[in-house]
Amino acid sequence: MLKKSLIIIFVFIIFYAYFKDEVFEEKTLVMGASLPNTGIINAWGESVSKGVNAYFNYANENNLIKNRKIEFLVYDDKYEPELTLENTKELVYKNKVFALFGFVGTPTIKRVLPILYDENVPFFSPFSGASFLRNNKNQKFINFRSSYEQEIDTLINYLNEEKKLNKIAVFYQNDDYGEEGYISLINLLKKRNLKLVAEGSYKRNTLSINHAFNEIKDAKPEVIFMIGAYKTNSLFIKKAKESENLKDVIFCNISFGDANSMVKELENLNTTTKNIIFSQVVPSYSDLNIKAVKEYQTIMQKYFPNEPFGFLSLEAFLSSKVLVNALSRIEGKITREKLISTLKNTPEDLLEGIPLEYKNSQLLNKTFLFEYKNNEFIEIKR
């Protein structure tokens, strides 16, 4: 009987040691990320890093986390899933970061899901609208941005219901990111008794558009959804605008396509931005009527005075503000479980002028549509 009791006690101790919520006493809380600092979407890594570090610097300088500092530790993954896996192992097992924050890309994030499932590490504000990060029972996944499905649904509503356009094609990246957007588009069209007239794909981290272009051009679509990276999307648009069949097509670029970088790329290609609609998960970074945007501009100018404003750095800045606020509201010892709980209970009015509501594992639940005219993004009012 005594032996049996000792075994039960031993098992309980092991169970408690494994599942207890670890207390972090360190004076610096480290948030880890794997970002594409180099490679075909390197602008993503730069924008995210500067948006995050601007607010983290501000938080440290103003002691926003109760005599704690916050640090952003980043490894470069070149937008390659295997490098992301290596980086995540380093962050979790060697660096023992407090949380994972701001990862970029659907295929890269999907590659590290086994680690995210197995380890008790919060995973906050990935730059992906993937369904597997939302339709998920894992309580450690907390998204900041709206989903790809919401973005695409907003675009279809505008194009089909307001503009009465229904000949729709898609150009997409042939991986988990492209597939997420492709499936969402198919399903949302089906709900409206519509279907694609053509489709074409390309390999991630390449500029190989010719096959996809030839698959789409003869269908003469009215609209082409662009579910790819900014350089490849821009090259496709340039080629399309030079084609008799596609010169008047409306191109729909979702937020992961990086609107600011795409505009620059199109300018370099001497290609107009006419007939391009940009979907975004945050409002205009130029709208100073929104207090959170005004704060973003002020703090970015202080810490990165030479960095142009943009949608991605704004999103990174805002999610950093949410994270710092959650940490500042933790009572008593700082633990990962407390961080997850406070993030889920973020005040709806924290980002003054940008409402927040935690549902379907995300805090933002609105999408915006823009055109680029006269050197600025103009919101399409609906």
Explain this structure to me?
The chain is α/β, with parallel strands linked by helices and 382 residues long. The protein folds into two domains: 24-145 and 286-365, Rossmann fold (3-Layer(aba) Sandwich); 148-280, Rossmann fold. The protein contains 13 helices and twelve strands. The strands form two sheets. The protein has a seven-stranded mixed beta sheet, sandwiched between helices. Strand 11 (368-373) and strand 12 form a beta hairpin. The N and C termini lie far apart (73 Å). Mean pLDDT is 93; it is low at 5-20.
β-strand amount: 15-25%
Estimate the global geometry from the Cα principal axes: globular
Instruction: State the CATH class of the largest domain.
Output: Alpha Beta
- CATH fold name of the largest domain: Rossmann fold
Order of helical and strand elements: HEHEHEHHEEHEHEHEHEHEHHHEE
Category by helix and strand content: alpha/beta
Distance between the termini: 73 Å
Could you tell me the radius of gyration in angstroms? 22 Å
- Total helical elements: 13
CATH superfamily of the largest domain: Response regulator
Give average pLDDT, whole number: 93
Record the strand order, biggest sheet: 7-6-8-9-10-11-12
- Which spans have pLDDT < 50 for at least 5 consecutive residues? 5-20
Topology (SSEs and partners):
Layout: H1 2-19, E1 28-35, H2 42-61, E2 69-76, H3 81-94, E3 99-101, H4 106-111, H5 113-118, E4 123-124, E5 141-142, H6 148-162, E6 168-173, H7 176-191, E7 198-202, H8 210-217, E8 223-227, H9 230-241, E9 250-253, H10 259-268, E10 276-280, H11 291-303, H12 311-328, H13 336-344, E11 368-373, E12 376-379
Helix pairs in contact: 2-11, 2-12, 6-7, 9-10
